[in-house]
Amino acid sequence: MNFKEFIKDGRVILLVVLLLVSVASISIFGIQQGLDLKGGSVIQIRLEQPVDAATMNTVTAVLDRRLNIFGVKDVKVRPSGNQDVIVEIAGVTPDDVAKVVGTPGKFVIKIDNQTALVGSDITKVAPYQVTGDTWKVPFTISAEGASKFAKVAQGKADAPVEMYLDDQLISSPLLDAGLATGVPSTDVEVSGTEKTKQEAESQAKSIQTVLQSGALPVKVTIEGVSSVSAELGEQFQNGALIAGFLALMVISIIILIYYRTPILVIPIIITSVAELVLILGTASIIQWNIDLAAIAGILASIGTGVDDQIIITDEVLKKGEQKTRRRGGVQLRIKSAFFIIFAAAGTLIAAMLPLAYVGFSRGYTGIGVLSGFAFTTILGVLIGIFITRPVYAKFIELLLGDKKVEPTPAKETTTKKSKKGSRKKKKGKKK
């Protein structure tokens, strides 16, 4: 085998570069683990009434934005039917976010029982500030809101400015004399005092999140909370690693028994490991959560990859046609193998796309979880047919392309006997 020609091939260089990028991404960014591996909580939210698809999309978008603003990572918000929303939070308990999730976000400022501002008047929310046990959240309002506030506040210096969040009074500072002149100002802040600095930070963060994310179109309530412990997630992770290792060992043994030569077993295993690294590297780059469904998709795609490599190897190792075992014949057989591979991959992707689409767009319970399986399977198949399998095909081409297959001794004996028999017949005719 010409090793220099192999490492200089463009497909091999591309694979090496992508492997280095994947390893670097995994080392720097890590791999995002899903709820069933890392542990976390599932919050079931019930809407006050059934809603249409547009309203449900608004609800999920607001909840997702709130949780991201609040600082919650590894969160999934998906609808379940037309009245329920499922929130999956990996790595944290729901205590700190339940209030944020279940808050409609109706914000009203009143002076002398007159509405001076509403949440829709807010255009920008600045970071909250905490000094001791006192907090404040500065924000900017629209020109129209500023005019309305100035009109209500005019001549009411030192009057309490009552700030309501979901009809609950959260703060009632006194109106500054500078804001009671009737001159509109777009800079406003909400402030308050708590018992401790920690409580002040929690309150300020919650109010900032609600003000910044907007209001929910319907009232929501938290119906239930269930948790997955980190220990159970670790058991799932260890079980998945053991299952993957055992699968790799079984595949190695089967291939070794089938081909009876390690020189063909080793590249198949190396190619499978390379596919695994590329899949995990891609997941690390796009911050895709790896959960049990995703692990199942990875195993399925790698198993498909092993099947494809066996197809390539079997096509090249077909016996009985000496001419096709030379370089040109090997290339023709590899093309024939890739025709089968692409057809199988197209069928598999076509079967997975509806599952992925329904899971991502609709978020139905159960199907939404399986969308991770579909996405990871499709990703693994695409990486295989466009990156790793062409490199394996190049390896097989260089390994076997220049080898000639001599006829077996049995066939040679048969041929010689038939020739001798024909000579005897010819001699008999001459006599």
**In the CATH hierarchy, what is the superfamily of the largest domain?**
Multidrug efflux transporter AcrB transmembrane domain
Query: What percentage of amino acids are in beta strands?
Result: 15-25%
Distance between the termini: 55 Å
Could you give the order of the helices and strands? HHHEHEEHEEEEEHEEEHEHHHHHH
CATH architecture of the largest domain: Up-down Bundle
Number of strands: 12
Domain count: the total is 3
Q: Which segments are poorly predicted (pLDDT under 50) over 5 or more consecutive residues?
A: 319-325, 362-367, 402-427
Which percent range fits the helix content? 55-70%
CATH C-level category of the largest domain = Mainly Alpha
> What structural class is derived from the secondary structure elements?
alpha+beta
Radius of gyration: 34 Å
Strand order of the biggest β-sheet = 2-3-1-12
Could you give a short account of the major beta sheet? Answer: 4 strands, antiparallel
Give a short synopsis of this structure.
With 431 residues, this protein is of the alpha+beta class.
Commentary on this structure:
This protein is of the alpha+beta class and 431 residues long. The protein folds into three domains: 3-33 and 230-408, Multidrug efflux transporter AcrB transmembrane domain (Multidrug efflux transporter AcrB transmembrane fold, Up-down Bundle), CATH 1.20.1640; 40-93, Alpha-Beta Plaits (2-Layer Sandwich); 105-215, Gyrase A, domain 2, CATH 3.30.1360. It has 13 helices and twelve strands. It has helices at 3-7, 10-29, 35-38, 53-70, 98-101, 143-153, 197-213, 230-259, 262-285, 292-316, 327-361, 367-400, 409-430, and strands at residues 40-47, 75-80, 84-90, 107-111, 114-118, 122-125, 129-131, 134-141, 161-165, 168-171, 187-193, 220-228. A four-stranded antiparallel beta sheet has the order 2-3-1-12. The chain has a four-stranded antiparallel beta sheet with strand order 5-4-9-10. Helix 2 packs across helix 9 and helix 10 (292-316) packs parallel to helix 12. It starts with a helix and ends with a helix.
